[in-house]
Every structure is written in structure tokens, then in C-alpha cells.
Design goal:
The protein is of the alpha+beta class and 139 residues long. It has one domain: HIT-like (HIT family, subunit A, 2-Layer Sandwich). Helices cover 25% and strands 19% of the residues. It has a 5-stranded antiparallel β-sheet with strand order 1-2-3-5-4. Strand 1 and strand 2 form a beta hairpin. The chain is globular.
């Protein structure tokens, strides 16, 4: 399975999985991890990743894909605690907007704001807001 990822150093998501980089974790199992985006488009913006490195969905076989989709479904149910509306997105490749070349789904709660995909200034998530969200999105 060929990957078109451009590697420019250590993968930040692999560093998070290894515990060498911080993250506001919402969910974790043996194969996947869900955590809050540090520069959220909306309140509660989550990322769902496989723990194994691969740049694209097609870099993984059916078992790994299924594990990520199971976690994504769990996180969608939790996001519905915040709002009944949300977007799920996957960027595959630089021209598609992928910045971190470790496959990940964005789960973006929607609250009636304008299109969150239009370029705008994004504000860094605070630790206090992250803790409130982890509480709301937790089990």
C-alpha cells in the first residue's frame, strides 16, 4: 500500500501515541486514540487516529480500518452530547489539506456557525477548556 506522505521529521501523532507529546485524550483503546484538536475549528473538535502509523486510510487493512471506524462511531455518539450536528472529515494528501501525515479523522461539532472549513484564525485550546470537554465527552 503506497503512501504519498511527505516526511519532514518525527510524526507528532506517533509522539502522542508513545506518550512523548502531550494531548487532551478523550478515548483510547489498544488500536486507536481520540483527542481534542489543539487548534479547534469549533468547541469539541476531536481527532481520531490509529495508533499504528500510516498516512492514509488505504495504508491500512480492513482490521485497522474497522478499529478506527468503531472509535469514530463512539466519538460521534459522545459529540452528540454537545450538539446533534457535526462534520466528519478525512484529508488524504497535501493537496487535500492534510497537514499531519498520520491518518486521522476530524470530528467537528456544529453549533450553527458559518462553514468551519473556510480559512479563518483558529485559537489554541486552553487546558481548562480541554478538561471541561473531556468531562463532557467522557464515559
Amino acid at each position: 500500500m503506497a503512501s504519498s506522505a511527505v516526511t519532514t521529521g518525527p510524526c507528532v501523532f506517533c509522539e502522542i501515541v508513545a506518550g512523548r507529546a502531550p494531548a487532551h485524550k478523550v478515548y483510547e483503546d489498544d488500536a486507536t486514540l481520540a483527542f481534542l484538536d489543539l487548534f479547534p475549528l469549533t468547541r469539541g473538535h476531536l481527532l481520531v487516529i490509529p495508533k499504528k502509523h500510516g498516512a492514509r486510510l488505504t495504508d491500512f487493512g480492513p482490521p485497522e480500518q474497522a478499529a478506527v471506524l468503531r472509535t469514530l462511531e463512539k466519538m460521534c455518539r459522545r459529540a452528540e452530547r454537545l450538539t446533534s450536528d457535526y462534520n466528519v472529515g478525512l484529508n488524504a494528501g497535501a493537496r487535500a489539506g492534510q497537514i499531519v501525515f498520520h491518518m486521522h479523522f476530524h470530528l467537528i461539532p456544529r453549533y450553527g456557525e458559518s462553514n468551519p472549513f473556510q480559512p479563518r484564525h483558529r485559537v489554541r485550546l486552553t487546558d481548562a477548556e480541554a478538561q471541561r470537554l473531556i468531562t463532557e465527552l467522557g464515559e
